[in-house]
């Protein structure tokens, strides 16, 4: 039994769940009505996540998050400036390491918006500034509806444009549940704050459902059969370097810019990640029939960033500053309850 406990100290159970979810999707991908059900469950979990955060966060915290313009500009700069620069620099890897089609997919991944749901979930786990992460992730998604197709048209030569339907979808899926949570906070806010374990389960569960739905879609599209194993391993190596560079730059840069611990965590998680949920529908419009291969780099990066950021979030949640933040939250809850 002691050996099992020692092994558990080095293996994060949540990482095992993530890898297990990927394995299940690879062996038993959802298709037909099951795929529709998986997509609906993913949408429902994300809506529930934002509703609970709306109920938990005070209105003042939410307003402070919206007003934190330095943090928003930092994350937007990472998402739509630093990432594309790395993508352009990777052009030197063609064709000796990456074929042109895979490179276009890599460049496309550098152009899509930041994640919203998983960035917020990991920021919450690490006890960072959740309100700022919500606002920054939402801004990135809204801006990306216009900026990503324009950047793709300029850098890749693909066509695409602003989609009012995509903007409406973001508002309905992300902002509406959060606003409803804020409106109902007076009655349910105390209950939500006292039962953080429920919110934690939604954090982790929503990520697992989204991973299964997205990976199933890629399996059904056959993207894994269009690339040889040597090329796929090369892509993994390139994307590992890309993620390492962005995690390092966001952590170092946020310190240099004088952000506090909570803000630094939000910047690292929102500024170093890319949204598969936003990238998949955009790719279908921008690349048309070639979308399956174009989104392969984004799918690989998505799994990699979730695993790495899950490890970081769990580690940062145990540092002394996190314990102090937890103690302050408990004291605030007691004072307000």
Provide a descriptive summary of the structure in words.
This protein has 337 residues and is mainly alpha-helical. The chain is 81% helix and 0% strand. It is built from 16 helices and no strands. It has helices at 2-10, 13-27, 33-56, 59-67, 69-89, 100-109, 117-125, 130-155, 164-194, 196-221, 229-256, 261-271, 276-287, 291-294, 296-316, 320-336. The chain is globular and about 55 Å long. The model is unreliable at 330-336 (pLDDT under 50).
Could you give a quick summary of the protein structure above?
The protein is mainly alpha-helical and 337 residues long. The chain is built from 16 helices and no strands. The protein is globular.
Structural key phrases:
mainly alpha; disordered C terminus; 337 residues
Tell me the layout of helices and strands.
Blueprint (H helix, E strand, L loop, with lengths): L1 H9 L2 H15 L5 H24 L2 H9 L1 H21 L10 H10 L7 H9 L4 H26 L8 H31 L1 H26 L7 H28 L4 H11 L4 H12 L3 H4 L1 H21 L3 H17 L1
Helix pairs in contact: 2-10, 2-15, 3-9, 3-10, 4-8, 5-6, 5-8, 5-11, 5-12, 6-15, 7-8, 7-10, 7-12, 7-15, 8-9, 8-12, 10-15, 11-12, 11-15
Mean pLDDT over the full residue set: 79
H/E topology pattern: HHHHHHHHHHHHHHHH
How much helical structure, as a percent, in the residues? over 70%
Strands, count: 0
Oligomer: single chain
How would you sum up the major sheet?
A: none
CA-atom Rg in angstroms: 20 Å
Strand content: under 5%
Uncertain regions spanning at least 5 consecutive residues: 330-336
What is the distance, rounded to the nearest whole angstrom, between the alpha carbons of the first and last residues?
A: 41 Å
Classification by helices and strands: mainly alpha
